[in-house]
Amino acid sequence: MFPPFNSTTPSGELQGLDLDAIKESASTLECDIVARDWDSQIPSLLLGKFDVVLTMGPNEQRRKVIDFSDPYVITPNTFLVAADGPLAKLPHTGEHLSSDTEEGQKAIAEIKDVMKV
User: Fold this and answer.
1) Within 13 Å of residue 108, how many CA atoms lie on the same side as its CB?
2) At 110, is the pLDDT very low, low, confident or very high (cuts 50, 70, 90)?
3) Sign of CA dihedral 60, 63, 69, 72
4) What pTM, to 2 d.p., does this model score?
C-alpha cells in the first residue's frame, strides 16, 4: 500500500487518491478494483487479468512492454536539510529533474558526492 494514493481501511476496504481518480474517470463503466502486489502488476496486465494499473510511473524498461497515460498526479521528491547545516547548498537546488534521464542521473551522482560529508 502507498498512502495517500492507496491503502486499506481496518475493515479491508481499499481507499485513496488512486481509487478516487479511477472511480471518477470510470464512473460510467462497471469495474472491479483489486489490490495486487507490486511485482505482479505488469505481468498480470500483460496476461489480461486486468485492464489498468494505477500508481506506476514510466521508465525505459516498463515502456518496452506497456503504455502510459498522461499522469493524473505528479509527486516530486525533495531533500529537507537544515538551512545552516553542511548540506544547505546541495547542487541542483530548485531544479526539476527526472531520475529517468541522463541529466537527472548526473545530478543524483553530484548530490551523492556532496552528501558524503
Assistant:
1) 10
2) very high
3) negative
4) 0.63
